[in-house]
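Can't paste images in this forum, so I'm doing it all in text. The chain is below; anyone willing to post the predicted structure tokens underneath?
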Amino acid sequence: MNWITNYVRPRINSLFTRREVPENLWTKCDECGTMLFHRELRENLNVCTSCDHHMQISPRLRFEALFDNGAYAEIDVPAPVQDPLHFRDQKPYPQRLRTAQKATGEKEAMLVAEGEIGRTPVVAAAQDFSFMAGSMGMYVGNAIIAAAERAVASRRPLILFSAAGGARMQEGILSLMQMPRTTVAIEMLREARLPYIVVLTHPTTGGVTASYAMLGDIQIAEPGALICFAGPRVIEQTIREKLPEGFQRAEYLLEHGMLDRVTDRRRMRDELIVILRILQHMPPAVKGELPPPAEGPEAAPQPDAAAKKVAAQESGA
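Text version of the structure:
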């Protein structure tokens, strides 16, 4: 009886007991509904393997794929005064910040770093839409200024990845003041004659679109990204008309001259390398670990021994 109770019954129960699967192992594509395994999705840079829909991606994962060997150094951003307006809606503003920090593992909605892309030194900044919808507050303004100052000091181009729902309402007018502040920071790059490239990701809206996100020397967008000041629903309710198909999406804006390129995230790194080196009058990047090509007359290719032998036979004939 003990053998049946202690061995047979647990064995039978284990065969029919449903095992719990962690919820974070699978992600459902918002576009086609395909269930994607987390490792496969990460390796594909959060792009659906079925329909190529570009999902949201964290700044750290983006930087790991962007910089050479995934190596980069973070740039310190001055911390602003927390909750200067003592704002409270359903929750106090500091509590919302702590919740977002716990959920994302980041201090704020923008990460600034420096490193090399195809052996080209750059400064990069990326917004995190998971952190309070990537909203632009005083910290984001400080981050862009810190990135611009570092780019000017080190004579490096600046690449910015935008993803935001607009200004942060909990900071009121102080949030709106970041629009002129960041515009002045971008002007510093212009005066230093340094490239400023913006990659607009889904979504980029509101005051972010009305300031630093549309001031790039080169404007690139990811496929299907919503890029606008006021959203399509707000416009439709205002004018009481149906908007064109794909209105305010990246492909529509490219067709109407507001963007320079629409580039798949998986090819973004190679695209940026080419653009950066063209803007800085640099030779094409050398792939792999090969040394860069030598300059001068010694750079001419020398024939090998077999080629010399063939040439000698031909001349003797």
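The CA atoms of residues 56 and 117 lie 22 Å apart. Residues 56-285 form a domain with the 2-enoyl-CoA Hydratase; Chain A, domain 1 fold (CATH 3.90.226.10).
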